[in-house]
C-alpha cells in the first residue's frame, strides 16, 4: 500500500502511520516530539548498535511531495530544521540525560525529487538520510516479517479478551449513569478500561487490515480514551455541583462506544481466522458479523 495518496495531516500521518512503523521495525524509545520545543525533530527514536550502545535518531516529517519547484523558501526552511535537529542535543525525558544524535532522517510520505535531493544534500552532511514513499514501502514489507504469525495471533487474541472485558464494564457504567438520573448518587467514579493490548494489536495489524477496519480500531481507541477522560472527572456519591450535562453526554455516547466494541471484536476475530496476507496485500473488510467471517484477501492499492 502506498503512502503518498493518504489524505492526512502531518500529525495524523506521523502518529497513525510512521510511529507504528518505527515500532514494528523494532526501534525503541519512539517518541512523537512535534511542538514548540521540537528543535527540528517531529519524531525521536533509538536503537542499539552491535556493541550494545544506544544510538538516538531524529526525524523531520513532511507529508506529500518535496519538490524544488515549490520555491527556495520551502527547502530553506526544511534545511534549517534539519540543521537544528542535528546540532541541538536531545534530552531523553525518561532519565534526564542529553544525547548527540547519531543521525537525522528527513521522512517524506510522497516523493523527494532529484533536484530537491541535490539541494538538500549540498547544504547538509552525511549525517542526513532521506526517506521517501519507496523506502517506506520497503520498510513496511520488512517489518511485516519481523513478527511470527504465532506471535501475531497471540497479540490479536489478547486484544480480543481486552475488548470483551471492556464491553460489560461499559454496560454497567451506562446502567449506573441512568440510575443517577433518579438517585443523584453515583457509585462508580471510574471504570477500568484497559487499552494496551488493543493498541498493540492495532500496531500489529496496521499493514494487514482493510483501511475501513483500521479506521474502526482508531475510532474505538479514541472513544474509549474519551470515556476514561470524562468518567475520571465524575465524583463518587452525591456531587456538589451540577454534572447533569456530563452524565447526559456519557449516556448518549456510550451506546456508540458499545457498538464499536462489537465491531472491533469482529474485526479481530476476522484477522485471526484469516490467512495472514503477504507483503503488498491486505485482508478484505471484515464482514458485518463474526459468523460470516471468511479469509479472503485482496491486493493492497
Q: Strand order within the widest sheet? A: 1-2-3-6-7
Structural class: alpha/beta
Rg for CA atoms: 23 Å
Shape: globular
Looking at how many chains there are and whether they match, the oligomeric state comes to single chain
- Domain count: 2
Helix run count: 8
Distance between the termini: 5 Å
Proportion in helices: 40-55%
What is the averaged pLDDT score? 82
**Unreliable segments (pLDDT under 50, ≥5 consecutive)?**
290-301
Description:
With 301 residues, this protein is of the alpha/beta class. The protein folds into two domains: 10-144, Trna Endonuclease, Chain: A, domain 1 (3-Layer(aba) Sandwich); 149-299. Helices cover 49% and strands 14% of the residues. It is built from eight helices and nine strands. The chain has helices at residues 10-24, 72-87, 114-122, 133-144, 149-183, 196-204, 211-231, 244-273; strands at residues 28-32, 43-48, 54-62, 90-92, 97-99, 103-108, 128-131, 281-283, 297-299. The protein has a five-stranded mixed beta sheet with strand order 1-2-3-6-7, sandwiched between helices. Strands 4-5 form a two-stranded antiparallel ribbon. β6 (103-108), α3 (114-122) and β7 form a beta-alpha-beta unit. α5 crosses α6 (196-204) and α5 (149-183) packs antiparallel against α8 (244-273). The longest helix has 35 residues, at 149-183. The chain starts with 9 loop residues before the first helix and ends with a strand. Residues 290-301 have low confidence and may be disordered.
Amino acid at each position: 500500500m502506498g503512502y503518498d495518496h493518504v489524505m492526512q495531516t502531518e500529525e495524523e500521518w506521523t502518529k497513525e502511520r510512521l510511529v507504528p512503523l518505527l515500532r514494528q521495525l523494532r526501534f525503541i524509545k519512539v517518541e512523537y516530539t512535534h511542538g514548540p520545543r521540537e528543535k527540528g525533530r517531529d519524531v525521536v527514536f533509538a536503537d542499539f548498535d552491535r556493541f550494545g550502545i544506544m544510538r538516538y535518531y531524529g526525524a523531520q516529517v513532511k507529508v506529500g511531495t518535496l519538490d524544488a519547484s515549490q520555491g527556495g523558501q520551502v527547502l530553506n526552511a526544511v534545511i534549517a530544521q534539519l540543521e537544528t535537529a542535528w546540532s541541538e542535543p536531545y534530552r531523553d525525558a525518561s532519565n534526564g540525560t542529553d544525547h548527540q544524535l547519531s543521525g537525522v532522517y528527513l521522512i517524506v510520505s510522497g516523493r523527494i525529487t532529484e533536484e530537491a535531493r541535490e539541494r538538500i544534500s549540498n547544504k547538509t552532511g552525511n549525517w542526513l538520510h532521506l526517506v521517501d514513499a519507496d523506502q517506506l514501502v520497503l520498510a513496511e514489507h520488512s517489518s511485516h516479517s519481523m513478527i511470527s504469525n504465532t506471535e501475531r495471533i497471540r497479540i490479536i487474541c489478547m486484544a480480543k479478551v481486552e475488548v470483551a472485558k471492556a464491553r460489560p464494564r461499559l454496560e454497567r457504567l451506562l446502567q449506573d449513569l441512568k440510575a443517577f438520573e433518579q438517585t443523584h448518587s453515583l457509585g462508580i467514579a471510574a471504570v477500568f478500561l484497559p487499552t494496551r493490548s488493543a493498541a498493540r494489536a492495532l500496531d500489529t495489524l496496521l499493514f494487514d487490515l482493510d483501511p475501513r477496519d483500521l479506521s474502526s480500531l482508531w475510532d474505538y481507541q479514541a472513544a474509549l480514551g474519551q470515556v476514561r477522560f470524562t468518567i475520571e472527572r465524575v465524583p463518587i456519591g452525591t456531587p456538589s455541583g451540577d454534572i447533569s450535562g456530563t452524565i447526559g453526554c456519557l449516556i448518549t455516547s456510550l451506546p456508540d462506544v458499545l457498538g464499536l466494541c462489537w465491531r472491533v471484536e469482529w474485526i479481530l476475530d476476522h484477522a485471526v481466522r484469516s490467512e495472514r496476507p503477504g507483503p503488498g496485500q491486505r485482508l478484505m473488510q471484515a464482514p458485518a458479523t463474526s459468523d460470516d467471517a471468511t479469509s479472503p484477501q485482496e491486493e493492497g492499492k
